[in-house]
Amino acid sequence: MKNLKGKLAVVTGASGGIGLEFCKVLAELGASLLMVAIDDEPLRKAAALVADAYGVPTHPLTLDLCQPDAADRIFGYLDNAALEPYILINNAGIFSFAPVADIPERKVEAFIDLHVRAATMLSIRFAQYFRRRGEGYLLNMSSMSCWMPMPGLAMYAATKAYIRVFSRSLHYEMRDYGVKVMVACPGGIATDLFGLPDNLKRLALRLGAIAPPDRFAHRALSRLLKGRKQYINGLTNRLAILFIGMLPTRARMQVKRRLLDRGISRP
Fold first, then answer.
1. Coil, strand, or helix at residue 66?
2. Is the pLDDT of residue 135 over 60?
3. pLDDT band for position 265 (cuts 50, 70, 90)
4. Where are the alpha helices (DSSP H) in the chain?
5. Which helix (DSSP H) or strand (DSSP E) does residue 184 occupy?
6. Active-site annotation holder among 7, 24, 160, 180
7. Of 145, 156, 201, 231, which is the active-site residue?
8. Rounded to the nearest 5 degrees, what angle is found at the Cα of 230, between the Cα atoms of 224 and 218?
9. N-term to C-term CA, the chain
């Protein structure tokens, strides 16, 4: 991958999981970082960890991206610190496995605010900035679930589907301006997003059902810098998209009755 020394990357959801792994890969390539997350203490610890390990400047910005002025506040910080972004990794997200009718209204709003409004406004603001510069890279995180109309995943899958379609369209709109836009649609990744216990997470890793976040971040970033428009990790995940898309209604109803109706998961 290209040397990013002297370049600045902005990463949302940067305090842990895939976001932190993106920060590590970017720092390894020499990039300085504006790390954005909602929880202050974990974010500052993550920023210090990356700075100490890789010797690059890191700037922690504690921010709730669900706030309507989130994009303005990020660009205000960049302007005040005289920072010029080169890459945006739009990674922040939330997850819930529950019937739509059982999800609290505030969480429904959070899905829309974070996965739709924030993803859109950040993409637009950075696309405008990169277009003026004549270069830049923008990665939006969708999910393999965006192809999966499965019970229990309605809000997550639907909002991630929006991200994918929006990002694919933006890719074509920006390519004539030297701006590279990619959407990543990972399958299961070994982070805390889905709430798996550590023992099940280790088992799923050994079976190959989920992937290590560092490997995913490295491969996704490699493809972004090559100008790809979409990345789905692993042949198994790409085949699963086809298989799940062909599931009959009867099979989907079994998922609903066995998992949702028995109350295994709730928001």
1. coil
2. yes
3. very low
4. 17-28, 40-54, 70-80, 105-111, 119-133, 154-174, 198-207, 213-225, 235-245, 249-255
5. strand 179-184
6. 160
7. 156
8. 40
9. 40
Do residues 24 and 54 touch, judged by C-beta distance below 8 A?
A: yes
The type of residue at 249 is T
CB atoms closer than 10 angstroms to residue 254? 13
By CB atoms closer than 10 A (0-12, 13-18, 19+), residue 240 is: middle
pLDDT in tens, 155-207: 999 999 999 999 999 999 999 999 999 999 987 665 555 555 555 545 444 54
Phi-psi region of 259 (alpha: psi -120 to 50; beta: other; left: phi over 0): alpha
Amino acid at 87: I
Q: Has 5 been annotated as catalytic?
A: no
Q: What is the mean pLDDT of residues 121-132?
A: 98
- The question of whether 32 is a catalytic residue gets the answer no
Give me 143's structure tokens. Answer: 């999910």
DSSP letter at 261?
T
CB 39 within 8 A of CB 15: yes
Q: Is 142 a catalytic residue?
A: yes
Token pair belonging to 239: 């085949």
pLDDT in tens, 144-157: 888 877 888 899 99
Catalytic pick among 15, 32, 96, 142: 142
Which residues, 6+ apart, have CB-to-CB distance to 260 below 8 Å?
98, 99, 151, 152
pLDDT at 203: 46
Residue 134 zone, left/alpha/beta (φ > 0; ψ -120 to 50; rest): left
Gap between the Cα atoms of 103 and 155, Å rounded: 9
SS (H, E, C) 211-236: ECHHHHHHHHHHHHHCCCCEECCCHH
